[in-house]
Design brief:
Layout (H helix, E strand, L loop, with lengths): L12 E3 L2 E3 L7 E8 L2 E12 L2 E4 L5 E2 L4 E2 L5 E5 L14 E10 L15 E5 L27 E6 L13 E8 L1 H7 L2 H4 L6 E4 L15 E6 L2 E11 L7 E5 L4 H11 L6
Antiparallel strand pairs: 1-2, 3-4, 3-8, 4-5, 5-10, 6-7, 8-9, 9-10, 11-12, 11-14, 12-13, 13-16, 14-15, 15-16
Organism: Triatoma dimidiata
Keywords: Disulfide bond, Lipoprotein, Receptor
GO molecular function, one term: serine-type endopeptidase activity
């Protein structure tokens, strides 16, 4: 079972006009990095199986030294509602990362953030429940998209006051295909709209913010949420749309990674 959102799980909270409920988006994961001995929230991710988190490669890559971060300096939290590592939520599970697998050709900014996709293989299986559940993956690439089609992104990014949100927030964003995205983008952003990107967002500031990076953009098919995008990047000072890694462009790679990891998973 995958991609089933929950409603009425717990009392709703309102944050900056964005209503989110505990467990409403059960596939969302938080990626925490150990920085100078302290665990800090760095990125979002999407559960796609009990052992596998899908995220952005830039979340696991150290740009300054051009290498992948050590898995020992990462932890994943699922079933988490409040961003703070020191706050343990009712349904929260914390997991160690066994292996980090970014797309082979990812090289960060020097390669325009092309192939900004990565898999985290967990040490132990996530215990699935109503409030912790994978998103669906469209392995057959059957999704049809049109300009303005609304997808959902959740995360603990910065709110409109530029402070990190303490609880998980959701936003629905309209889809822009690759060509529309390039047409609407300012010149300095164009080189980051690589072949494997699409865009989503509004010009009024409703969109993704730093901290939402790596989280999934889901679209509903047959009443189930499928992850089609991964939050990749946006213009630093512009409240316009963001670029998302197009999961479908990497579906063969992802399928091969998942297959290769399967024998290591005990259930």
């Amino acid at each position: 079972d995958c991609g089933k959102p929950n409603t009425n799980v717990e009392r709703p909270l309102i944050s900056h006009g964005t209503k989110t409920e505990v467990g409403e988006y059960p596939w969302h994961a938080g990626l925490y990095l150990r920085i100078k001995g302290i665990w800090e929230h760095a990125c979002g991710g999407t559960i796609i199986s009990p052992y596998i988190i899908l995220t952005a490669a830039h979340c696991v890559y150290e740009e300054t030294v051009e290498k992948v971060r050590n898995a020992r300096d990462m932890k994943v939290a699922v079933g988490k509602y409040r961003r703070d590592w020191n706050v343990i939520d009712k349904y929260e599970q914390r997991l160690d990362v066994k292996e980090v697998i970014p797309q082979r050709a990812y090289r960060g900014k020097s390669n325009s953030y092309e192939q900004d996709i990565a898999v985290l293989d967990l040490e132990k299986s996530i215990v699935l429940s109503m409030v912790v559940l994978p998103a669906c993956v469209d392995w057959l690439a059957e999704g049809n998209f049109y300009l303005g089609m609304l997808g959902t992104v959740v995360g603990w990014g910065l709110n409109e006051n530029k402070t990190p949100t303490e609880v998980l927030e959701k936003t629905r964003l309209p889809y822009y295909d690759y060509d529309s995205c390039r047409r609407e983008s300012p010149p300095e952003f164009l080189r980051f709209i690589t072949y494997d990107k699409f865009c989503a967002g509004y010009s009024n500031g409703t969109g993704v913010q730093p901290g939402d990076s790596g989280g999934g953009l889901t679209f509903v098919r047959n009443k189930q949420h499928y992850v089609y995008g991964i939050v990749s990047l946006k213009l630093r000072n512009e409240d316009t749309f963001a670029a998302f890694t197009n999961v479908t462009e990497h579906i063969d790679w992802l399928e091969n990674v998942v297959k290769a990891l399967k024998p290591h998973h005990s259930n």
